[in-house]
Specification:
By secondary structure, the protein is α/β, with parallel strands linked by helices. The protein has 12 helices and 10 strands. The strands form 2 sheets. Strands 3-4-5-6-7-8-9-10 form an 8-stranded parallel beta sheet. It has a two-stranded antiparallel sheet with strand order 1-2. It starts with a strand and ends in a 7-residue tail after the last helix. The structure holds adenosine-2'-5'-diphosphate. Residues 184-189, 194, 209-212, 227-231, 234, 238 line the site of adenosine-2'-5'-diphosphate (A2P).
Length: 283
């Protein structure tokens, strides 16, 4: 496993196991337990995934020292604002029950983000959270919020894959040393991506599958990538990307696949309202 050093000095494993849409009370426990056995040391959850309890239980039962596992969770919109975020952070800490949270993110950047961020900075100072970051920030949202933040985000977790390389936001993030975390890093099963001749050609050359080539590209590009799989074989093999490297010419060929288009536009009208109504987190 490779590690990346964040702008606050903390280290994060460059591949994380995502648990979005995996139910609590069993399935997430099983999935995280298997991922940890397969060698993952980074689990990406969120209050709005409704499975923090199972993530925590799997981490506690794993027999692996707590310090060796990196756990991310995220604050949901209903908890924005200073007081709300204090409450949301305590709820996540209680549900996870693993002592501290390695990385906590503003899940969706709308409403009183500045107040939420102050509460997150305080929780970091108190050692309840080790690193803090944001998610789904477009250049417009970044420019709206980040200049006023005292602590610059350690990460911005956004949609990223070779067809959607987020070149604009990456320029802004470079100024604050903020690392990109990729969600939907495999294009969420987009056949046009997994069957792209550039990628299948490289897969043949290196004796890897298309997914491994994509994940290698992302890690080699300096990102943290969060592939999702329910297939035990792919869960395992998606970690096997540290025994080869793409050449600079191959990296450039991968970079040229960018279309600038993804599935989620955080600036689109109605997105904030739709997300606000999507989930209610209960204590
Ligand atoms: P499966 O669960 O059957 O492995 P993303 O992480 O971009 O959301 O993509 C997830 C999708 O990609 C899932 O449909 C998953 O299917 C599939 N997938 C995961 N790993 C690989 C891989 N190495 N090669 C091809 N498809 C993969």
């Amino acid at each position: 496993m490779d590690y990346i050093t964040l702008n606050d000095g903390n280290r994060i494993p460059s591949i994380g196991f995502g648990v979005f849409l995996i139910p609590n009370n069993g399935p997430t426990y099983e999935a995280v337990s298997k991922a940890l056995k397969a060698g993952y040391r980074h689990i990406d959850s969120a209050a709005a995934y409704f499975n923090e309890e199972d993530v925590g239980r799997a981490v506690r039962d794993s027999g692996i020292p707590r310090e060796e596992i990196f756990v991310t969770s995220k604050l949901w919109l209903q908890d924005h604002g200073y007081e709300g975020a204090k409450h949301g952070i305590e709820r996540s800490l209680r549900k996870l029950d693993i002592g501290f949270i390695d990385l906590y993110l503003v899940h969706q950047p709308y409403g009183d983000v500045a107040g939420a961020w102050r509460a997150m900075e305080e929780a970091k100072a108190e050692g309840k959270i080790r690193s803090i970051g944001v998610s789904n920030m477009s250049p417009v949202l970044w420019n709206k919020f980040i200049p006023d933040f005292k602590t610059k985000p350690a990460v911005n977790q956004v949609e990223f894959n070779p067809l959607f390389q987020q070149k604009e936001i990456r320029k802004l993030m470079a100024e604050t040393g903020t690392k990109l975390e990729a969600w939907y890093p495999l294009g969420h099963g987009n056949a046009g991506l997994l069957c792209h001749p550039v990628i299948t050609g490289l897969a043949k050359k290196y004796g890897k599958n298309a997914g491994q080539i994509i994940l290698r590209f992302e890690v080699q590009e300096g990102m943290i990538t969060l592939p999702k799989s329910t297939n035990p074989e792919r869960i395992r093999t998606n970690l096997e990307i540290f025994d080869f490297a793409l050449t600079e010419e191959e990296m450039n060929r991968m970079r040229s696949l960018d279309t600038g288009k993804g599935s989620h536009n955080p600036d689109a009208p109605g997105v904030e309202e739709r997300l606000r109504g999507a989930f209610v987190i209960e204590d």
